[in-house]
Amino acid sequence: MIEINRVLVLYGSQTFTAQEIAERIWRKTKAFGFRGPVQAMDDYPISQLIYEKFAIFVSSTTGQGDEPDNMKKFWKFLLRKNLPSNSLRNLKFGVIGLGDSSYEKFNFVGKKLNKRLIQLGATPLLDLGLCDYQHDLGHDAVLEPWLDKFFIELKQYFPEIQINNINDNFIPKWKVSVIKGIENNLNNFDHEDIYFAKGQKSFYLEPIFLTVEKNVRTTHETHFQDVRLITFRSNNDSKLDFKPGDIFNIRPRNSKEDIDDLFSIFQSHGIDIKPYYKLLVEEYHDGKLIHVLIKN
Ligand SMILES: Cc1cc2nc3c(=O)[nH]c(=O)nc-3n(C[C@H](O)[C@H](O)[C@H](O)COP(=O)(O)O)c2cc1C
User: Fold this and answer.
1) Which of 38, 49, 82, 257 is the most buried (most CB within 10 A)?
2) Can you quote a single GO CC term (predicted)?
3) How confident is the model at residue 254, as a pLDDT?
């Protein structure tokens, strides 16, 4: 059953910007007293969408006008030809697109998503917001006024909500705790949805291990942007195969020296965190545990 004061926040994000913004928006909805989760579009059970009444979609555009990997399934479903044109008649929504106007297909995904939701019978609460990374104030230049307007529109349906009287308490989405004896504790988990870092399904392809060979600043020291040319060396001569438009995601790793330094700082301050301890990261929505990650 869908709660009455529920606002769903869904995102499609390739490099986490849209995710971070969606989580910020979600915190705002909580502060106003709304319920509902924030999730990647592909993590959301899409068959429920016909029951939703209010939603905010935050989506970036990647590649050459392509949708991020974590909304591909969702988007493919929405494009099905056999969906009735009034499937989403219950839904009132807003789309905020994140893009960069230096790309030819500026905010292509946000625009397509907004159009498709309308085709399926959903009602936009306001025009879609087109954030531009090229703006001097970044995405916030469009995002902040767009959000103010969104909440004013939403208030028509929830007159009791005080949008000027915001509860500023920080609302955590994650709870992090230290597990000292992982081997024994593991057997105590009976949550249905446990992912372990190693076996975790990832939307990234198999990683390639590379070493940074050169890291050179290409902009003048006085320029506000620090743009770098980073040259990598492949450790095992594996041939890198790529086409224009492919995305190269870098997952940096800390050096052993930095890690040793960190643990010696913990030790000198009497903080009981050892390299072999694991962290239990729990994701909550409305007090309900939905996701568990265990990380070294
Ligand atoms: C490889 C790559 C391709 C991009 N392609 C587009 C594009 O075609 N159109 C656009 O408007 N923005 C494009 N962008 C800009 C991103 O949409 C923008 O940086 C956004 O903030 C990224 O959000 P994310 O981190 O949630 O994926 C591209 C960015 C990258 C890194």
Assistant:
1) 38
2) nucleus
3) 79
Q: How far is the CA of 16 from the centre of ligand 1 (A)?
A: 11
Name the residue type at position 269.
Answer: H
pLDDT in tens, 244-278: 877 777 777 778 888 889 999 999 999 888 877 87
Q: What is the pLDDT of residues 105-131, one digit of tens each?
A: 999 999 999 999 999 999 999 999 999
What is the 8-class DSSP label of residue 122?
A: -
Question: Does residue 15's CB lie within 6 angstroms of at least one atom of ligand 1?
Answer: yes
Instruction: Determine the CATH number of domain 8-155.
Output: 3.40.50.360
Residue 253 has a pLDDT of 76
Residue-range domain boundaries for the chain: 8-155, 173-296
Q: Which atom of ligand 1 is nearest to the CA of 107?
A: 11
Ligand 1: nearest atom to the Cα of 13: 26
Return the axis-axis angle of helices 17-31 and 140-155, rounded to nearest 10°.
30
Of ligand 1's listed atoms, the one at least distance from the Cα of 12 is 26
In testing the pocket of ligand 1, which one of 10, 60, 102 has its CB within 8 Å of the most ligand atoms? 60
Ligand 1 pocket check for 64: Cβ under 6 Å: yes
SS (H, E, C) 25-46: HHHHHHHCCCECCEEEHHHCCH
**46 Cβ contact partners less than 8 Å away, ≥ 6 residues apart:** 73, 74, 77, 78
Q: Choose the most confident range, by mean pLDDT, from 130-144, 168-182, 188-202.
A: 130-144
